[in-house]
Design goal:
With 410 residues, the chain is of the alpha+beta class. The chain contains 9 helices and 14 strands. It has helices at 26-47, 52-66, 109-116, 135-139, 172-233, 237-262, 271-286, 303-324, 373-385, and strands at 11-12, 71-78, 83-90, 101-103, 120-122, 144-151, 156-164, 268-270, 290-295, 300-302, 332-339, 349-356, 388-393, 398-405.
């Protein structure tokens, strides 16, 4: 982060008769205390993240108040024009703010402060011999002015200037306050730069993650196509079926990556949108089974839990196609995603069910003792995601359910 500039010895008009360090009066002490209060308030305002343009206006207003001056302006340096633009200010009309410019050369008080980094005090502009008095100040009847550098992102942003029509003199304590206000603006500029860089880095990371997920999805779909080609060429019915099941499992994982590259977050998936895609694949020829899907939208679940859920659903639908309708040509499965019950924790638990109206389970069927590969896979995934796996005999058909916490305790 850019270190705020210290306040160097200001360039002040020579005044031999004046006491260089007169004892402060009670009113002067009160004004210095007020200036410190205003600096503290400006610092708090900047830390709260006020938009920069609003902070410029607020700084100009509070600076004029603290220095009991009629005018204050923030001058932004325009390198290509070698001039300073009145970016914000108080006391100046709309014909000045955002439009008027002053010279940024060393013969200008603001230009001198910009290029040397030294604060400039001009207490008697009508008698000023060191610099030319800008026309803008002359037209406004300004008698005295101060300028300090406003540091930007590595290079000066411009100058903070305060002007007054009244008699009197600005002193070193006033210039210290003015530089403090400029330093607050400089730190706000630096903060903006860090936030822009951070935002750009996050956007790039998001773009890269989407590209990675897109490529993974494409690669997995290529593997699915190869397995489907092999299944089509296989002569043995058992081999053909096994290749088809393997293709369905890989396609289920591919659909997760498809959802990830379509979304802004890679940590979670919309479970119903994901399972809807998976069920369309399963019903589109992968299992020769019509799959009816219904899911509550907006259930966000961690990606590393969504994939095992989808793989378990894939196995259950595959089992429906293989065993629930041994002779029938019209095979049908119903997949549902819903919140669990109406209790206090209903919003935190979900139920996924896979049902059919087929022949039903054989007598003595026990999930825990099943030796079939599909059911062992389902049981393993249920254990992995902390789900309670249950089977319900229907008339006709069967329903398998997975009930699980949406966000399991860590």
């Amino acid at each position: 982060m850019t270190v705020p500039p210290k306040t160097p010895r200001p360039v002040v008009e020579a005044s031999p008769a004046a006491d260089p360090d007169p004892p402060p009066t009670r009113s002067a002490l009160a004004q210095r205390i007020r200036q410190q209060e205003i600096l503290a308030a400006l610092g708090v305002t900047a830390l709260r993240g006020m938009p920069f343009d609003d902070l410029l206006d607020e700084t100009a207003r509070r600076t004029a108040e603290a220095l009991e001056a009629e005018f204050c302006k923030v001058l932004e340096y325009l390198p290509t024009e070698k001039r300073l633009l009145v970016r914000a200010g108080v006391g100046w009309g709309p014909d000045v703010i955002g439009k008027a410019t002053v010279g940024a050369d060393l013969e200008s008080p603001a230009g001198y402060a910009l290029h040397t980094g030294k604060p400039v005090i001009s207490n008697h502009l009508q008698d000023e011999q060191r610099f030319r008095t800008p026309d803008l100040l002359a037209r406004a009847g300004v008698r005295r002015a101060m300028n300090v550098i406003l540091q930007g992102e590595g290079a000066p942003f411009g100058v903070l200037e305060v002007d007054s029509r009244s008699d009197g003199e600005f002193g070193e304590h006033d210039i210290a306050f003015l530089q403090g206000a400029a330093n607050i603006l400089g730190m706000a500029l630096e903060r903006q730069r860090f936030e822009r860089n951070l935002t750009a880095a996050l956007e790039r990371q998001s773009l890269l993650m989407k590209e990675v997920n897109h490529r993974i999805k494409n690669s997995l779909q290529l593997a699915v196509s190869m397995l489907q080609l092999q299944a089509g060429a296989a002569k043995e019915k058992g081999v053909k079926a096994q290749l088809g099941v393997a293709a369905s499992r890989i396609l289920t994982i591919a659909r997760a990556h498809q959802q990830l590259y379509k979304n802004d977050h890679v940590e979670t998936l919309d479970l119903s949108a994901y399972l809807g895609d998976v069920c369309r694949d399963l019903g589109g020829g992968a299992t020769a089974c019509t799959v009816d899907f219904d899911g509550v939208p907006g259930i966000a679940i961690a990606t590393d839990r969504a994939i095992p859920i989808a793989l378990a659903v894939t196995e259950l639908v595959t089992n429906v196609a293989k065993y629930a309708y041994p002779e029938a040509a019209d095979k049908r499965a119903w997949v549902r995603v819903a919140r669990a019950g109406d209790g206090a924790d209903a919003a935190d638990r979900i139920v996924i069910s896979v049902a059919d109206d087929g022949a039903g389970l054989p007598r003595g069927f026990d999930i825990a003792r099943s030796k079939g590969l599909g059911m062992r896979i389902v049981a393993a995934f249920a254990s992995q995601i902390g789900a309670a796996l249950a089977v319900h005999r229907r008339s006709p058909g069967t329903e398998f359910t997975l009930e699980l916490p949406l966000n399991p305790p860590r």
